[in-house]
Amino acid sequence: MLSKAEKEKGMDLAFAQAELAQAQNEVPIGAVILDQNGKLIGAGYNRRELDGDATQHAEMIAIREACKKLNSWRLNDCSLFVTLEPCPMCAGAIINSRLANVFYGAFDPKAGAAGSTIDLFSVEKFNHHPQVYGGLYKEHASQLLKDFFRQIRQKQKQAKTTDNGGKNS
């Protein structure tokens, strides 16, 4: 089991990745993978809009990077830290890459696959079941997302007002 300091390090690094996404007007979701010694081996942030690719989730990018670094598709004894509960696609990649632990911040009531809408990690027939720990720094993770979407709505409202010649409709 990871120490409290290692968990804090992992989540801090994931939040730093989320900030990189936000700086590029992407949904601020970040993920990192640490090996069993606490060494960073993979990092990613949401890039769906930038790349026009639905698979460019933070977890997917971090998993690809970690696999390259280890020269293996197996990420045994490694831990994923992500700011938002993984979706079904990412949960599948987590299972297939054999990650030992998943730590996430905010719960995702719309697409969360670690218990919020479905729990893919508990499906008995799957051949791998990572240990999952949700809600780490959930207030910070949730606030990051709320602030981002509030800014998007404000920009859309301003654009609509400008498009209407300053008249509200």
Short description:
GO terms for molecular function: tRNA-specific adenosine-34 deaminase activity; zinc ion binding. The protein is α/β, with parallel strands linked by helices.
Explain this structure.
This protein has 169 residues and is of the alpha/beta class. It has one domain (4-163): Cytidine Deaminase, domain 2 (3-Layer(aba) Sandwich). The protein has 5 helices and 5 strands. The protein has helices at residues 4-23, 48-51, 58-70, 88-97, 138-163, and strands spanning 30-34, 40-45, 79-84, 101-106, 131-134. It has a 5-stranded mixed β-sheet with strand order 2-1-3-4-5. Helix 4 (88-97) links the parallel strand 3 and strand 4. Helix 3 runs parallel beside helix 4 (88-97). The radius of gyration is 17 Å and the shape is elongated. The N and C termini lie far apart (57 Å). The mean pLDDT is 94.
Q: Write down the domain tally.
A: 1
Please report the total strand number as a whole number: 5
Q: Which oligomerization state do the chains in this entry correspond to?
A: single chain
Classification by helices and strands: alpha/beta
CATH architecture: 3-Layer(aba) Sandwich
Function: Catalyzes the deamination of adenosine to inosine at the wobble position 34 of tRNA(Arg2).
Family: Belongs to the cytidine and deoxycytidylate deaminase family. ADAT2 subfamily.
Enzyme class: hydrolase
InterPro entries: APOBEC/CMP_deaminase_Zn-bd, CMP_dCMP_dom, Cytidine_deaminase-like, MafB19-deam, tRNA_aden_deaminase
